[in-house]
Amino acid sequence: MVPPTEALSRPESNDTLSGISEEAADEALPVYTPRFKRILFVVTEVSASYGRALNPHLGIAMLMAYLDREGFETAVIDLQLGYKIKDVVKKVEEFKPDLLGVTMFSFDFENTYKIINTIKELTHLPLVLGGAHISTVKGEALQRTNADFGVTRDGEITLFQLCAGYPLDQIKSLLWRDEHGKIIENQIRKLNWKLDELPYPAYHKFEMERYIHYIDRRIPLETSRGCPYSCTYCDVKISMGQAFRPRSAEHILGEIKYFYDQGSRFFEIVDDVFTMDLERAKKVMASGQIEWMKNC
Ligand code: B12
Ligand code: SF4
Question: For 239, which of 65, 90, 100, 135 could close a Cys bridge (C-beta 3.0–4.6 Å)?
Fold first, then answer.
């Protein structure tokens, strides 16, 4: 199948937010009073076939790196490591977050909804949901849980704007409840093509030695986001957008070196279509003393 070419290049912006383009609005960085300063992320357990967590959650590692860079305080508790809801409550008492961020897949979602509701009932903290499931079902996730907010697709900028105190009705890709409890689904953000501007994932905030892949010092590596195709069974076009958004080979190699210097020896590429741009893929693979193996 030939990918739609418009999905391979950056679309022109003609969309406005308070009279200026979305990009200009992001860059203008108006100074608001922060809404949340300390964010505790919860990685929910999925009773899939792995038994225990393979890797630290890359999406959450990206969000923590981004928020940390912007001056927020973040921490994470991963329920896949055997932690229970009582441990989340204990972590809340210790870390004292003012926002909880929960990530979830659609797999086992009924069970995850129950976990979310119990966490909310026990902590009474504002709670934001994110991840592939929320991008897919959107407002339904707020209808069926007592979460306060939801974020669809890439989370970095939207979550930053939520924490930084941007007016709720101006935060693109945010799901929220108005004063009457009505669930509002804001307009979706344009895809973020500037992936080289994101910081490297904050893996150091996880209990790295407790993941199965610590055995070969393996970490996930994301060299691009999304996919231009639209296989009917696949969620990526909805959750990450139907476009191939590459990072530059230089930025990727910088990340490999950064983590190699800290002891990582195995980089598991989690992209949907790593070889979409063959020249870029060759550049990454040809540099350094990298041994490659494929897995699926
Ligand atoms: C690597 C990967 C895995 C890895 C690691 C999973 C993990 N915990 O991250 C492994 C192999 C373990 C895995 C397993 C499964 N996976 Co998987 N996986 C992927 C893959 C290819 C990349 C994920 C990734 O790291 N992306 C990069 C990071 C940066 O993106 P992200 O995690 O989505 O996070 C961003 C946003 O979603 C958002 N966000 C995420 N969480 C939160 C939380 C908050 C509070 C906020 C505000 C924002 C936010 O912000 C992040 C930064 O931008 C995706 C496909 C894809 N492109 O998304 C499928 C995908 C996520 N997997 C999928 C599935 C179904 C599964 C399994 C359930 C399969 C199964 N039946 O066993 C299992 C679940 C097992 C488990 N215990 O977690 C589906 C999910 C569909 C859905 N609607 O839920 C996807 C989308 C694949 C697909 N083609 O449909 N997976
Ligand atoms: S990521 Fe999804 S849409 Fe893209 S080629 Fe793979 S299965 Fe198809």
Answer: 135
Does the beta carbon of 272 sit less than 6 angstroms from any atom of ligand 2? yes
For ligand 2, is residue 274 a contact (CB within 6 Å)?
no
The ligand 1 atom nearest the CA atom of 158:
47
Q: How far apart are CA 45 and CA 48, in angstroms?
A: 9
Q: Which residues pair with 183 in a beta bridge?
A: 177
CATH fold of 201-285: Transcription Regulator spoIIAA (3.30.750)
Quick one: fold of 13-185? Answer: Rossmann fold (3.40.50)
Q: Give the pLDDT confidence of 236-276 residue by residue, as tens digits.
A: 999 999 999 999 999 999 999 999 999 999 999 999 999 99
Atom of ligand 1 nearest to the CA of 49: 72
Give the SS3 label for residue 198.
Answer: coil
- Whether the pTM exceeds 0.85: the reply is yes
Contact predicate 99/125, CB 8 Å? yes
